[in-house]
From TrEMBL:
Listed InterPro entries: MUG/TDG, Uracil-DNA_glycosylase-like, Uracil-DNA_glycosylase-like_sf
The organism of origin for this protein: Streptomyces composti
Coiled-coil region list: none
SMART domains in alphabetical order: UDG, UreE_C
A Pfam family it matches: UDG
EC assignment: 3.2.2.28
The keyword DNA repair belongs to this UniProt entry's keyword annotation: yes
MF (Gene Ontology): hydrolase activity, acting on glycosyl bonds
Classification lineage: Bacteria, Bacillati, Actinomycetota, Actinomycetes, Kitasatosporales
Keywords: DNA damage, DNA repair, Glycosidase, Hydrolase
Full protein name: G/U mismatch-specific DNA glycosylase
Amino acid sequence: MTRFTREELQAARDRLVPDVVADGLRVLFCGINPGLMTAATGHHFARPGNRFWPALHRSGFTPRQLKPSEQRELLSYGLGITNVVARATARADELSPEEYREGGHILAAKVARLRPRWLAVVGITAYRAAFGDPAARVGPQERAIGDTRVWVLPNPSGLNAHWTPQTLAEEFARLREAAEEG
């Protein structure tokens, strides 16, 4: 993996990272917003220690653990990635409530256009802020966007330590099983 200087990472602030999407996906995963490592590399969930890629594999979504640089392979499995807020920051707490709400509107429009079977928001706090649902819990939601069902997954950041790699993979597997059912 490329090593970036502090200056190179800071230069990635506010960059946009292209979505990995297509029409009719099985699951569209939605992160909070790109971190600086993601923005510097152009690859989603690129920060070392982020557990998204291991959880995706351990849950059975992918036959092997993909590297962030292999993110386009997700499309061959009917999977994609986007974000609630498009601009890159060092930390999610740099985002304003208005950015989350606006991101929720943009995300809903994107989902209506792409029509994935499931939208999986990766991070309960981001989901609550973007969709104005303070009582939401991890798991399937009552909300749907058109015919797209919504599931909230735990944030796979290494900072979210109360979700172990095992329990994270188990929650991802619950979504995979629901997505396979139809």
